[in-house]
Amino acid sequence: xxxxxxxxxxxxxxxxxxxxxxxxxxxxxxxxxxxxxxxxxxxxxxxxxxxxxxxxxxxxxxxxxxxxxxxxxxxxxxxxxxxxxxxxxxxxxxxxxxxxxxxxxxxxxxxxxxxxxxxxxxxxxxxxxxxxxxxxxxxxxxxxxxxxxxxxxxxxxxxxxxxxxxxxxxxxxxxxxxxxxxxxxxxxxxxxxxxxxxxxxxxxxxxxxxxxxxxxxxxxxxxxxxxxxxxxxxxxxxxxxxxxxxxxxxxxxxxxxxxxxxxxxxxxxxxxxxxxxxxxxxxxxxxxxxxxxxxxxxxxxxxxxxxxxxxxxxxxxxxxxxxxxxxxxxxxxxxxxxxxxxxxxxxxxxxxxxxxxxxxxxxxxxxxxxxxxxxxxxxxxxxxxxxxxxxxxxxxxxxxxxxxxxxxxxxxxxxxxxxxxxxxxxxxxxxxxxxxxxxxxxxxxxxxxxxxxxxxxxxxxxxxxxxxxxxxxxxxxxxxxxxxxxxxxxxxxxxxxxxxxxxxxxxxxxxxxxxxxxxxxxxxxxxxxxxxxxxxxxxxxxxxxxxxxxxxxxxxxxxxxxxxxxxxxxxxxxxxxxxxxxxxxxxxxxxxxxxx
Length: 596
Ligand code: TTP
Ligand code: MG
Description:
six-stranded mixed β-sheet; binds thymidine-5'-triphosphate; 12 strands; 21 helices; four-stranded antiparallel β-sheet; Rossmann fold; alpha/beta; binds magnesium ion; 10% strand; ABC transporter transmembrane region fold
């Protein structure tokens, strides 16, 4: 928590000092009130006594009256100061806490952006969302509470006890206060021990609730298609039920505390007045002292109640604070090198894999096994192989979505690990296997490829990627809306839009991960012809399942279980690579193969 608090800005530190000052002023003013009440009551009872004994002169009467008036005015003044400071404290505390959580959220968000895919998987997306939202809100509440009570309550308790001790004839009364405080502390500690472990559980359950809800909503089509609503509902209901049960339990316990504390508070008050009545009966001039004492006692008890609230809220916040810290403590495994190497201008678009092996961080089985190949600028290299053979894993190493376990990946002769990541990724346009569009318009989606692309550039990219017919000929044109995930476009349309988004970047290297799979043969063919005509001549790495898509590539790599089992042109492979032959014969007729 303390480590998190270091993230406050300078102004907030200053405001905290102001808050502390105001809180002390407020406590001081509050404690002045009972003293004034004592004075007023004492003067009144003295006057009463004098009148009863018949020596109340006019002069004496005025003195008493003046004293009462003065003390009354002072009470009024102190109450005013207390009111104003408490309003300002609330106001400032809210501001400090909100600013703090703003900074924290921003930091967590930017930090998560640096995570590699495996780090995100480690926490799960759902948990990362809860941590950035719900957990930070919990921390924010604790900050507000602490600012408002953590200084006020102990100050009030200590000063109050000192003040109460100074009031005359209160020895018996003090005993009552001691008993009350012991009762309070016992009550709280016992409830506290029961409730505390549940707080951690609540946060974990919130993660789960988040996960199930997300999964259900993003997969709604699959759920409906399989008529799995009931199954999903059951899953949701289970988590939901556990969450609410835990909440009910915690709140029941906490709610026991309130009447318990009220009972102790009012019981104390009653006891003081009861014992006080005997004292006043003997010595009427102690009327003021008894009432003053009773008031101070109430303040002390309230201060203890506040302390208790802090003891409840703070551990809850600490659970959340720890969860936020866990995220911030992760050192992203993919980081920029300390001294990035700048690429030279002459070489552009060469790619080389040097004996690359790779396994995913959570497993020790190699997904890629000693892969080596080389591509010159402008060449087309195709990767083919059955599903799960490691094609996606292979190309994911190029823009450093993951780092190799062994070997080297070189772009323009430089190891990708030695690049500034922004410069490396500027060179590469990557079209992922699952075409993903963002909510917005076609224009805003293309802007991901190039931020300040002109209308002409956008149109050119759309033409090249064969997206002209359904975008430019549409009445809304570039301003056509895109729903979340691009759900208002067909699979093939999404692929073409993702290709346009990549082409607008005019990169040195373009990577297509099965990006033609949803296109019909004709569109596929024209698109590939368009790619050949690009005057900036990028290097093309194409992952595909269709022989037709890759037949004319300069180099074809045949992948099987993470190993290269064949490399060469279509002509070579069709003669000497068994795996390739199998794929080819399953897709093409004998004549087509012979013609090639
Ligand atoms: P991929 O590299 O995804 O295989 P692929 O791209 O050749 O398959 P497809 O044609 O279906 O797209 O997977 C290779 C192996 O790596 C596979 O056994 C699953 C595993 N894998 C992970 O463990 N974690 C991951 O994030 C990915 C992408 C794959
Ligand atoms: Mg794949």
